[in-house]
């Protein structure tokens, strides 16, 4: 059978632990990867995991693309396209999984020969850290394809800037695609004429410093341009308490920043997010990291809804936290815009641990304004997506710090034993910030 590939993708047929193709749009990455996997899977039985960072349904996976390629390549005799899998008559199997917050399912995927991570730009550090050691069969390979966006994207740093041993990495663009459709060629040329800078990223595949519409664009540029950069290794000070700042998002998404106040510096020393867990999971997490890293906790700042939200329990989150022996504060209610302003002001005094806050920083870098569908301009409202939870927790951090003094009177909560604890635990001077 004669199947053609762009020359730059020839390496897909040579063994390598990592095969990475990145660049602008239309570089024949998806088709090339999909076709190569089908050809290899038709030759011998392979277990192929097709992964993406976000996959809420099979429709968001590479399933449709592979099914289409089975038809185009005339391989219907070799493959049976099922609802959630594609099976080869020789025993080859394609399975599809989302990575984010799916640790247990990813870890339990045994015997994978090839893992293809498609649209890999936004794969988080936490996801890579779980996925890579899961692909452990001798000779197993990890294939990665993505469109370039930010120079600081975890995937870009990990596989392009400092690629691991045994990685084959190619940049591939529409110029390398002999079948580049004319409609797309016109799109590319139009954008080049209209907005050459945007063209550089979208079609040229060159990284930018900040995303268009990024809410903290200036602050991030200032922090990374500072000398020394305020993104780096941030020391933990064992003589100071660790405060935490929480977002309790929709669908049980929870994000937590861990911070210390040292002199005039705010040190963001760690970040954690997850979803689909009851509060006990996070309480256990707090304990585990405290043991590992010798944290002594100060205050745990929760958003307002902690007074109402239950996370699979009869008691509110606030009550459960008190019962677990934690000192809880509720972040004052402020508009999103005012919270963003507070965060912008605070940014200049923040130092971020690049490693332990990697996923939180990724959220801050990707937190952006929504586009108004009527005008196609950026609106005043942040886009609600995967990045907003970490960014919301950071906003609460700023609001809490901006207004740390008098603890809020528990007027709007029940005057129960939790409220009494809240009052008795609050220091006479207000909060534990100055500690
Ligand atoms: N091997 C091939 N044979 C024939 N046509 C191809 C082949 N590879 C790519 N094409 C054509 O080029 C188009 C773009 O390819 P593809 O979607 O794989 O690019 P991509 O790099 O994944 O793009 P994006 O960056 O937008 O995800 C396809 O829609 C198809 O029309
Ligand atoms: Mg693609």
Automatic annotation (TrEMBL):
Pfam families linked = Terminase_3
InterPro entries in alphabetical order = P-loop_NTPase, Phage_terminase_lsu, Terminase_L_N, Viral_DNA_packaging_terminase
Gene3D superfamilies registered for this protein in UniProt = 3.30.420.280, P-loop containing nucleotide triphosphate hydrolases
Q: Which residues belong to any copy of the Phage terminase large subunit N-terminal domain?
A: 17-205
Q: Tell me where on the tree of life, at the top rank, the source sits.
A: Bacteria
Spans annotated as Disordered? 405-435
Which NCBIfam families does UniProt cross-reference here?
phage_term_2
Name assigned to this protein: Phage terminase large subunit
Q: Which organism is it from?
A: Methylobacterium goesingense
């Amino acid at each position: 059978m004669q199947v053609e590939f762009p020359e730059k993708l020839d390496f897909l047929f040579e063994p390598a632990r990592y095969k990475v193709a990145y660049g602008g749009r239309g570089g024949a990455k998806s088709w090339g990867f999909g076709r190569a996997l089908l050809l290899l899977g038709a030759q011998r039985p392979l277990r192929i995991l097709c992964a993406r960072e976000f996959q809420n349904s099979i429709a968001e996976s590479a399933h449709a693309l592979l099914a289409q390629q089975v038809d185009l390549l005339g391989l219907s005799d070799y493959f049976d396209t099922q609802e959630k899998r594609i099976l080869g008559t020789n025993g080859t199997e394609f399975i599809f999984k989302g990575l984010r917050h799916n640790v247990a399912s990813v870890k339990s995927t045994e015997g994978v020969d090839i893992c293809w991570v498609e649209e890999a730009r936004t794969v988080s550090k936490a996801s890579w850290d779980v996925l890579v050691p899961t692909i452990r069969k001798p000779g197993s390979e990890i294939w990665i394809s993505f469109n370039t966006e930010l120079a600081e994207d975890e995937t870009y740093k990990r596989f392009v800037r400092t690629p691991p041993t045994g990685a084959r990495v190619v940049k591939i663009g529409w110029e390398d695609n002999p079948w580049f459709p004319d409609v797309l060629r016109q799109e590319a040329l139009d954008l080049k004429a209209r907005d050459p800078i945007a063209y550089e990223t979208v079609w040229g595949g060159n990284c930018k410093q900040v995303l268009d519409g990024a809410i903290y664009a200036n602050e991030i540029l200032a922090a990374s341009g500072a000398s020394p950069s305020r993104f780096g290794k941030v020391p933990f000070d064992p003589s100071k308490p660790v405060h935490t700042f929480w977002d309790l998002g929709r669908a049980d998404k929870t994000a937590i920043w861990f911070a210390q106040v040292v002199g005039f510096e705010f040190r963001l020393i760690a970040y954690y997010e997850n979803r689909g867990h009851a509060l006990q999971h996070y309480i256990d997490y707090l304990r585990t990291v405290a043991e590992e890293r010798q944290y002594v906790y100060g205050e745990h700042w929760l958003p307002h809804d902690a007074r109402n939200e239950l996370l699979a329990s009869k008691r509110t989150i606030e009550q459960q936290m008190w019962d677990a022996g934690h000192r809880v504060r509720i972040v004052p209610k402020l508009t999103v815009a005012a919270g963003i302003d507070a965060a912008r002001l605070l940014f200049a005094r923040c130092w971020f641990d690049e490693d332990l806050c990697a996923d939180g920083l990724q959220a801050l870098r990707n937190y952006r304004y929504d586009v108004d569908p009527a005008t196609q301009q950026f609106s005043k409202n942040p886009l609600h997506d995967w990045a907003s939870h970490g960014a919301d927790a950071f906003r609460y951090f700023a609001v809490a710090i901006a207004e740390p003094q008098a603890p809020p009177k528990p007027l709007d909560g029940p005057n129960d034993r939790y409220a009494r604890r809240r009052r008795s635990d609050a220091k006479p001077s207000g909060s534990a910030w100055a500690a």
